[in-house]
Specification:
elongated, 8-stranded mixed β-sheet, alpha/beta, 53% helix
Length: 329
């Protein structure tokens, strides 16, 4: 077994101002359960907590055994805890309207006689458009500041990488757009007869958007406020996934809180009549635990068991949280 220097409990107690907690990893490793158990722990500490899913394939309703889709919903039987499966449809439609208005204004400004619909359709058919909408929803929640703690169940890591990296990508894009817009304004003023200053809604939008992204970036990269936890199974592929993405998160300045190893089979199950399949799985896990300890030295915050039943409903989530939130001190 891995010697854990700092457990989840120890880490969270050392970061009392922590407000934005993210869970990610390869699909199927138990991110939703970890996020749910952590949100439950925060709520039990008396902190007003929102458990939110930014995964397009939501599973919070199944975990909690109640419908939490579309709006923050109080979790039955748990004071201080709300859950929310984010619906991107409204955000996507709103974004389409805003894009259409801006393109129409630009076409009129440039004296180009064509309809904006074709441009809007082209922009919104981009596969990243839904991720952009999800990011907008996520930072809207953060900016409203209605809860003391936000726990996010993210999409599989590749999507989470793009999602959380958008603040930096957007900033680079907007700065280039602002520069191009300033050059266009200067040229138009040079060629104009009146030299009259005209309102520029597009420039106003770009500056507002840049400020919004900068605020989001500051929150997401503040180690006192934000932590991203990776969840893995003791298997080759999920280990390889988080090993690669931990470096990427460091490069983007997103604070990594640690790694949680899930799905461990209890060695006490071994006996004379234990099937070879179970023996082989336990031995395989033991080898990968050694690899995890070597790769993520000092980052492992917890090891949770493979339970006999799925984690569904608050009582099972309470039981699972008991395995995750164990203090080393």
């Amino acid at each position: 077994m891995i010697r854990i220097e700092q457990t989840m409990v120890d880490f969270l107690r050392e970061h009392p101002r922590l407000k934005y907690v993210f869970f990610g990893g390869k699909g199927g490793v138990g991110k939703t359960v970890m996020a749910g158990a952590t949100a439950l722990w925060f709520a039990r500490q008396g902190r007003r907590t929102l458990l939110a899913s930014t995964n397009p394939v939501h599973s919070l309703s199944g975990l909690l055994d109640q419908n939490v889709f579309g709006k923050p919903t109080p979790v039955a039987g748990v004071p201080n805890l709300w859950a929310y499966e984010i619906d991107t449809k409204d955000t996507i439609e709103r974004s389409k309207r805003e894009i259409r208005e801006k393109i129409q204004w630009f076409l009129k400004f440039a004296e180009i006689s064509t309809r904006a619909d074709e441009f809007v359709e082209s922009a919104t058919m981009n596969p990243a458009f839904e991720e952009s909408a999800m990011f907008e929803n996520m930072i809207d929640l953060m900016f409203r500041d209605e809860y003391e703690v936000y726990v996010f169940d993210t999409a599989p890591t590749a999507n989470a990488r793009r999602l959380l990296g958008m603040s930096k990508v957007y900033a680079l894009w907007v700065n280039k757009m602002i520069k191009s817009r300033q050059e266009a304004q200067a040229l138009r003023k040079l060629l104009s007869f009146t030299k009259k200053e005209e309102p520029d809604p597009l420039m106003d939008y770009l500056i507002s958007f840049r400020d919004r992204m900068e605020r989001a970036r500051r929150l997401i990269t503040d180690p006192e406020l934000t932590a991203f936890f990776f969840v893995t199974l003791p298997e080759a592929l999920p280990i390889a996934v988080i090993r690669r993405f931990i470096h990427w998160f460091h490069d983007f300045g997103i604070p990594v809180g640690g790694v949680i190893v899930n799905g461990l089979i209890d060695r006490s199950f071994l006996g004379e009549n234990t099937p070879d399949f179970v023996r082989n799985r336990i031995e395989m896990q033991a080898r990968y635990l050694q690899e995890i300890e070597a790769l993520f030295d000092g980052l492992v915050r917890g090891m949770t068991p493979l339970l006999e039943n799925e984690v569904r409903g608050v009582p099972m989530l309470e039981r699972f949280a008991g395995y995750l939130f164990v203090s080393a001190s």
